[in-house]
Amino acid sequence: MSTAKRLRAGLVGLGSMGRHHARILSGLEGVDFVGVVDPMGDKHGAAQGAPVLATVEELIDLGVDYTVVACPTALHEEVGLQLAAAGVCALVEKPLADTVEGARRLVEAFESRGLVAGVGHIERCNPALLSLRARLEAGELGDVYQVVTRRQGPFPHRIADVGVVKDLATHDIDLTGWVTGRSYTSIAAHTVSKSGRPHEDMVSAVGRLDDGTMVNHLVNWLSPLKERFTSVTGERGCFIADTLTADLTFHSNSAVATEWEALQAFRGVAEGDMIRYAIPKREPLLVEHELFRDAVLGRPADICTLRQGLRTVEVAAAVLESAADHRTVSLLPEDLISHGG
Fold first, then answer.
1. pLDDT tens across 285-323, in order?
2. Domains along the chain?
3. Fewer beta carbons below 10 Å: N end or C end of the chain?
4. In this protein, which residues make up the domain named Gfo/Idh/MocA-like oxidoreductase N-terminal (predicted)?
């Protein structure tokens, strides 16, 4: 890294997530953390010595190559468009925007200027899911039948502007499409609101991917039990990823293993061995930052693109539409929807 150009990075927002971004940026190799914007100031002392500014314009005037956008979701579009207009690359916290239209405007703003931009769907950097994705790509599961996710825990008082679908379920929507390499074609959902806020705080959704894989998501912030569970069931068994502990286990279908000649005919399932994989556990947020830094430098880096972030916002909107209208919502193929179809 010593011979590469040092990048000048900024941050917008010193909330609970922004404070973690500040910690990573202050020590990120090859990057100078030059300033942070928060009109409320730095009440937690999290700026790591970087100047705390009141406006995005002041940050742009300092001269930044890229900026992390970690302000409330409702402000992502406004801040992102300011950065794009100034020619600044951006890593935008998830979800990309609070509306589909806003997400589309951000895609257009950065793509039309040829700027590197990504969305902070951090589960893509979780060691358990990285390992799961690689194993699915290698065909270790055979045909994939179903993806099930459960994401629940206590109510986060820091979230005031969106409900559980846009805040939490977007994690599961993105990771499901990412680990399988597939796109949602339909979704049916129910929501409830129990906490006295205008937004939903529990959702149950059933969906289908473009290869016929069935998807189930259960998400809430009404549970004292904190759970981050992803299972992928297929022909040769079931992978279970716990993204709280970054553990990945595999439960094999021993009936398949002993009947290779009969794979074409489904012969049922039998309980087989359970394997718990030993995987290196680096901090996902650090991995996310390293990937984005490399992307800004023009190196190959598997970041979540704005277009992928837009698709997740579109699916989340379909979840809310389904719950409101009590019907299954069909989604257009990605190539149509992302080009304004």
1. 999 999 999 999 999 999 999 999 999 999 999 999 999
2. 7-123+285-303 (3.40.50.720), 124-281+316-330 (3.30.360.10)
3. C
4. 8-121
